Amino acid sequence: MASPGVHQAILIAENNLQSTLLKESIEQKVNLDIKLVSPERLSTKSLQAPNLDLVIIDYPTMSKQYTEKYQELRDDIESDVHEVLLNTPSDFPHSEMLKWQYLVGIFYASDTLDKLVTGFNCILQGEMWMSRKLIYQYISFYRERQCAKTSPYYLKLTKREQQIIKLLGDGVKWSSK
User: Fold this and answer.
1) Inter-residue contact 81 to 105 (CB < 8 Å)
2) pLDDT band (50, 70, 90) for residue 1
3) Closest Cα partner for 80 from 99, 55, 105?
4) 3-class DSSP assignment, residue 6
5) Taking residues 122-130, what's their average pLDDT?
6) pLDDT class of 146 with cuts at 50, 70, 90
């Protein structure tokens, strides 16, 4: 049973000595209780934990198959549960970030335990932990995308037509009587 005030996390990683040592090292230095789940044991039940705050993912262990399985199961987790990637390559592309809808932290394979501790403490205080370069690429990606509201075609629509497009985008359905 977790102590009051201790944050809850799930670490998706191979169940080996390295992952166990990492888990224990983080738990000793951060106000975090971590449950280790191996990728092959991913299930709705394995991703359930009371008062879950973080899902920590050992990036190299997540094959395409495991990532897809996790993404399907992710829908059953509360939306305020955030994701953190560990051991990402130094050339981690911003486009890869788009797969992780609740991503708040990225740690590289070269990061030290002290850097992990500092980052996790920031994340638990509501901040994001990513390199400036990655955040710059991510923001630039979204700036380059043309927003529907600034499209010249969208601006030519009447207010009612714009409202209908917004409602359709939100998933509203009309029934014919």
Assistant:
1) no
2) very low
3) 55
4) coil
5) 94
6) low
Give residue 45's identity as a one-letter amino acid code. Answer: K
- Listing DSSP states for 60-124 in one string gives GG--HHHHHHHHHHHTTS-TT-EEEEEEE-TT--HHHHTT-TTEEEEEETT--HHHHHHHHHHHH
Position 113 scores a pLDDT of 95
Q: Give CA angle at 161 (158, 164), nearest 5°.
A: 150
Give the C-alpha separation, 132 to 137, whole Å.
9
Q: What is the mean pLDDT of residues 19-40?
A: 95
> Domain 7-130 belongs to what topology?
Rossmann fold (3.40.50)
- Residue 115: per-residue pLDDT: 97
Listed range (24-33, 105-114, 136-145, 155-164) with the worst mean pLDDT? 136-145
Contacts of 101 (CB under 8 A, 6+ apart): 74, 83
Q: Which amino acid is at 54?
A: L
Residue 31 makes CB contacts below 8 A (sequence gap 6+) with 5, 6, 7, 124
Rounded-to-integer distance, Cα 56 and Cα 143, Å: 28
Q: Which residues partner with 37 through β-bridges?
A: 12
Domain boundaries, the chain: 7-130
Q: For residue 12, which of 33, 31, 40, 32 has the smallest C-alpha distance?
A: 40
- Strand 32-37 to strand 103-108: parallel, antiparallel, or no bridges (unpaired)? unpaired
